[in-house]
Amino acid sequence: xxxxxxxxxxxxxxxxxxxxxxxxxxxxxxxxxxxxxxxxxxxxxxxxxxxxxxxxxxxxxxxxxxxxxxxxxxxxxxxxxxxxxxxxxxxxxxxxxxxxxxxxxxxxxxxxxxxxxxxxxxxxxxxxxxxxxxxxxxxxxxxxxxxxxxxxxxxxxxxxxxxxxxxxxxxxxxxxxxxxxxxxxxxxxxxxxxxxxxxxxxxxxxxxxxxxxxxxxxxxxxxxxxxxxxxxxxxxxxxxxxxxxxxxxxxxxxxxxxxxxxxxxxxxxxxxxxxxxxxxxxxxxxxx
Length: 288
Hints:
By secondary structure, the protein is an alpha/beta fold. It is about 35% helix and about 20% strand. Helix 5 (about 130-140) links the parallel strand 4 and strand 5.
């Protein structure tokens, strides 16, 4: 995958991840007390989808028409998906879009910021210099948002437990290195040692099932608290697509999140399928 996420922004994986992120934030907001939102690999924060068709040297096929583009004009979405779409539409309008097709797409930092209350706080980590600069321009003057140019894998160890004693941690790395899964598992272990009740969401691509299963084995060796495995595939195993789906492991999910997530994924499997064999999966990796 290309680290500069604007090539992939708004694709089916973003739709899945961000629709679920909205529900995680909402789940934590059932309590009045604030919480820390920690994004370990925040990227630049927002994306101009017009740039998605421009590679480093050659034009490329944009991915957002098969993602957020599939939802853009729908009026038959459930309330959770409609809320997510409403946030994306609002962001698009506020940044100069507002047309019949999406132009500007919010990354996870903006999804969380748009949903945050005054008592909630955000820490956004991004070590890649160009991406960090753009992130800092967008959020650097926000009172309750801190942008850090650090290796996000060390952030759970460094920043937990927060003063709020509650946290939602999103670990969404670029998956460029061979050891991404191992580094994620170490970060999870360090974070849970610091704050056992932290809600942690771990995104991963579905490209090689064996690597994902090995990742689950590493996680289970940590003696995890209740943990959900959520997956969305847009094509079957025989498809030539390089990335046929993606997943989100959610540790310490909020109350009733499993039911919400299952309904969201089932609907997205219908709307976002690109070839036969797409499906949704929602199961307890570690039961409640």
